[in-house]
Write a structure and sequence with these properties.
Layout lengths: L5 H17 L4 H20 L8 H24 L12 E15 L4 E12 L3 E12 L10 E9 L12 H7 L4 E12 L4 H20 L2 H12 L7 H9 L10 H17 L4 H18 L4 H19 L5 H15 L7 H143 L1 E3 L2 H8 L3 H17 L1 H27 L4 E3 L5 H16 L3 H11 L14 E5 L5 E7 L5 E8 L5 H12 L4 E2 L1 E3 L9 H7 L8 E2 L1 E5 L6 H12 L3 E5 L4 E4 L2 E7 L2 H7 L11 E6 L2 E5 L6 H13 L12 E3 L11 H7 L3 E4 L12 H9 L3 E4 H4 L2 E5 L4 E5 L3
Parallel strand pairs: 3-5, 10-12, 11-13, 12-14, 14-15, 19-20, 20-21, 21-22
Antiparallel strand pairs: 1-2, 1-4, 2-3, 4-5, 6-7, 8-9, 8-23, 9-10, 16-17, 17-18, 18-19, 23-24
Helix pairs in contact: 1-2, 1-3, 1-11, 5-6, 5-9, 7-15, 8-9, 8-10, 8-14, 9-10, 10-11, 11-12, 12-13, 12-16, 12-17, 14-15, 16-17, 18-19, 22-23
């Protein structure tokens, strides 16, 4: 007896090895858990004991611990930090030498991938075996297979330092890159050319150029992404539009493309009477080459491997199993790059296939069971009606018996009268029979037509139902993944996919034919591409309607890991459940599990000091759900709102900022907030109230903020010394600025001096926000703290947390101020290797002498403070 779907078990063993290492448990505990898990799995497979297995199956069981160990050791190796990391911080002058394996060219840059590279830092330390992503000014004279020497700057990939932020380091780690390199010069030292890969690169460039000639820039970018896997020229607005409607999957090369191309080629070769083995080998080689040509993304890799397994099944005369093919493909990809298991691309690609392969049949069966129960109930009701009708007929027969005797007498009298009438009726009946015969023939024809029409409607209905169920199954499987990575659910994506998916096959075929025709004669390609253009316009029109519908997306925020695990456990039991009663109950449960993905929000005060580079950005979520930003800008991070603030807010499930407080008019405190207010902002974040310091708004920065706010319908107000913002038990007391004192002192023109200073008080918790306070402002705030503290008013004896002024500048946060505030924890917001040298050594020394614990966002990443007003929890994102 054989083991059913062995590749599923092998994949599970490998993933278990990855999971045990990722859990970061002590070695002894890891070994213990591993043994228990493996014994449990083997016991499950061998149960019941009466099963008899062939020798090959016992060999398979021995592979389980081997795959487990491979997964554990591979992840350990992948996560090793390169030795070069210790020798430079962010960027360093360097020289590298290696072989070109890939050349990429877009409108914005040219870059080459160098493998097996030897890296030398400032002609001192040398490291080998690296994979570098090298940006060059010109690719002239560069070919795949060349060995080159480059000089320039080697730069580390940026790690995410805030929740929701794109992790460049992890993304390129999954692709096995170590560093990026900006080349000042590049020299070919060995001109050997990899003819196979260079030919594929040339073909890719040729096909891209043809699509660019046949279509407009926008649609050409969509088609090169769909057919060639090149998303570099994909319009950002179109990509976002597709994402909001849940159809970004059509931009990736998937099983649809591969199966269409592979099966079409295979059938053509068989029609040409090529032997089975030769047809299979040519098809697999073609698909492998197509995979290389398109960059071998995760979805392409999966589809090519699965198609190769299908071809192998055909060659061996065996039945292809979709789940086994999927498991084998996943195992191959993960052994190439174990970190892919944590990437959105891998999980979405395989999740969709599992949804169709496993969830769809179970869902279809569950619905058919319910439908069958309803039909059976209907039959029972019909039988009951027939029995009742029989009783009524029996009673009627007795009543009719008496009536028949009476009728007998009347019939004798009627016979004489009828004799005369029969002669007249005979002629009328003869004429009527002829008319009735004509009507019967007409009704018979109509019945045939009606039956044909009903048959078409029934077939169309079944196709639509199957499309709906398969799309729903895939969406259900992907739901936790979508929320985990993108934090929101496109509400109408299920219905939009029903419109989009059925014509995707036609689009792929037409696009492939058009580019082939264009290779021969451009006008022929232009003729064929017309239909493709209409389909793409249809896609865009549907999506634009979708985003205008009310509630087009549901922003949830990142769910809890436990909730995701429970979701998939319930889904697993739904699929495994075989009893009718069980399936019906599990279907009801299935419809309610979506609520698991909504994260539970405790009613605490949560404050996040974001890492915005050289700047300030502080998010507050008050216990009643009010959302507030104090500043939100940077001098060294471009598009801060788009790339850091908005992803963070979506991670938190926040769409509206109730209050945006700008402490003063320096761009490193408001640039990201201004992005949300500008007219060309196309994101989802909305600001309701903008609060500025009560000063004379003469600078361009304030005028720009006020103008943008008014155009967006945002209410603008000011804070002055003595003002208080109260929300439940949270008090924000404004200690500065004082407009009159500033004008009298002559420091009103210094933006730092009129920074808003807020003292936050929540039960037993106190925090002081200082902006870029310095000079007279710091002196007056110090005096006020000294006068008021201990009186049981707005100023505490000691602050729990101080947001250090002016990014740790030595011109702020003096000894007198620290003596007055006496913070237990000091948080400094500053950028890595900033040009100002913040925080200055003098400030660090003063904070250390005041016995404050110091945290810096450039080291800790985002620092989150969670408090119920009594206890305090500190979370550092990079720890």
């Amino acid at each position: 007896m054989g083991i059913k779907r062995p590749f599923l078990w092998l994949l599970a063993a490998y993933i278990a090895g990855l999971a045990i290492y990722a859990a970061n448990l002590p070695f002894v505990i890891s070994v213990f858990i591993s043994i228990i898990v493996l014994l449990g799995v083997m016991g499950w497979i061998l149960y019941p004991a009466k099963r008899r297995y062939r020798l090959i199956n016992y060999f398979f069981l021995l592979l389980l611990p081997v795959l487990f160990l491979v997964g554990y050791l591979q992840l350990e190796h992948v996560l090793l930090i390169p030795k070069a990391d210790k020798d430079f911080k962010l960027k360093q002058n360097a020289t590298a030498q290696g072989k070109i394996s890939l050349i990429e060219e877009t409108d914005n840059y040219i870059r080459v991938t160098i493998t097996g590279a030897a890296l030398t830092l400032d002609y001192k330390s040398s490291y080998s075996g690296l994979k570098l992503l090298v940006y060059v000014d010109d690719k002239k004279g560069l070919y795949t297979g060349n060995t080159v020497r480059v000089t320039g700057k080697v730069i580390k990939f940026t790690k995410a330092s805030n929740p929701g932020q794109f992790d460049e380091y992890f993304y390129y780690k999954t692709k096995k890159y170590h560093y990026k390199f900006y080349a000042d010069s590049i020299t070919v030292i060995n001109s050997n050319i990899d003819s196979y890969h260079q030919t594929l690169y040339t073909i890719r460039k040729r096909l891209t150029a043809i699509y660019d000639r046949l279509l407009s820039g926008k649609n050409a970018g969509i088609l090169t992404a769909m057919m060639l896997g090149d998303t570099n020229n994909l319009d950002a607005d179109i990509k976002e539009l597709y994402r909001k409607n849940g159809i970004t999957h059509i931009l990736a090369i998937s099983g649809l493309h591969i199966s269409l191309l592979g099966l079409t080629l295979y059938k053509i070769l068989r029609r040409l009477r090529l032997p089975l083995f030769a047809s299979t080998a040519v098809t697999v080689f073609f698909l492998y080459s197509y995979g290389i040509l398109t960059g071998f993304g995760v979805s392409t890799n999966r589809a090519v491997v699965m198609m190769a397994v299908y071809m192998a099944a055909v060659l061996a005369g065996r039945t292809y199993d979709l789940l086994s093919g999927t498991a084998f493909s996943a195992l191959i990809i993960l052994m190439q790059s174990p970190l892919e298991i944590m990437s959105a691309g891998f999980l979405l690609s395989f999740g969709a296939v599992i949804g169709i392969a496993a969830v769809y049949p179970a869902l279809k069966n569950a619905i058919s069971v319910i439908k069958g129960e309803q039909e059976q109930k209907g039959k029972q009701e019909q039988i009951g009606k027939q029995e009742q009708k029989g009783k009524q007929e029996q009673k009627g027969e007795q009543e009719q018996k008496g009536k028949q005797e009476q009728k007998g007498k009347q019939e004798q009298k009627g016979k004489q009268e009828q004799k005369g009438e029969q002669e007249q009726k005979g002629e009328q009946e003869q004429k009527g029979e002829q008319e009735q015969k004509g009507k019967f023939n007409s009704q018979k024809t109509n019945t045939k037509k009606r039956g044909y029409f009903e048959s078409i409607c029934s077939t169309t209905g079944n196709i639509l139902m199957q499309t709906f169920l398969s799309s729903f199954s895939a969406q259900l499987m992907l739901l936790p993944i979508l929320v985990w990575f993108f934090y929101e659910i496109p509400i109408y994506s299920l219905f939009i996919n029903i419109l989009i998916i059925p014509i995707s096959s036609l689009l792929t075929i037409l696009a492939f034919i058009a580019v082939l025709a264009g290779c021969i004669w451009i006008p022929a390609g232009a003729f064929m591409i017309g239909s493709v253009n209409y389909i793409l316009e249809f896609y865009e029109a549907v999506c634009r309607i979708g985003v205008k519908l009310p509630g087009n997306s549901l922003l949830i925020g990142k769910p809890e890991l436990l909730a995701v695990i429970i979701f998939y456990i319930i889904l697993f039991f739904f699929v495994q459940c075989n009893r009718k009663k069980g399936r019906r109950n599990s279907l009801l449960l299935l419809l309610s599990i979506v609520i698991l993905l909504v994260p539970f929000r405790a009613k605490n005060l949560e404050i996040t000091f974001m890492d915005v580079g050289q700047g300030d950005g502080i998010f507050l979520k008050l216990p009643d759900g009010t959302n507030m930003f104090i500043d939100g800008g940077s001098s060294d991070v471009k598009n801060l709102g788009k790339y850091r603030l908005e992803p963070f807010l979506k991670y938190k499930g926040v769409k509206n900022i109730d209050y945006a407080v700008i402490t003063h008019g320096d761009s490193d405190h408001y640039s990201g907030i201004l992005e949300f207010l500008q007219a060309d902002y196309k994101g989802d974040i909305r600001i309701r109230n903008l609060i500025l310091p009560n000063v004379s708004f003469t600078g361009d920065s304030y005028l720009d903020l006020i103008k943008a706010a008014k155009e967006k319908g945002v209410k603008v107000s000011v804070l002055n010394r003595g003002d208080t913002m109260k929300n439940a038990n949270v008090y924000l007391n404004c200690l500065w600025p004082d407009k009159e004192l500033l004008q009298a002192s002559g420091e009103a023109s210094d933006t730092n001096s009129h920074s808003i200073v807020l003292s936050l008080h929540y039960l037993d918790f106190d925090l002081l926000f200082t902006g870029d306070l310095e000079g007279m402002g710091e002196k007056i705030v110090t005096e006020e703290i000294e006068e008021e503290k201990g009186r049981g008013g707005i100023i505490p004896l000691r602050y729990d947390i101080l947001k250090v002024a002016h990014h740790g500048s030595k011109y702020s946060t003096g000894n007198e101020f620290l003596d007055a505030a006496a913070p237990a924890l000091a948080i400094i917001s500053c950028g890595v290797d900033n040009s100002y040298g913040h925080p200055h050594k003098e400030t660090i020394d003063r904070l250390t002498n005041s016995k404050s614990v110091i945290l810096q966002t450039k080291e800790s990443g985002a620092v989150t403070v969670i408090t119920d007003g009594r206890s305090i929890k500190i979370l550092e994102y990079n720890r």
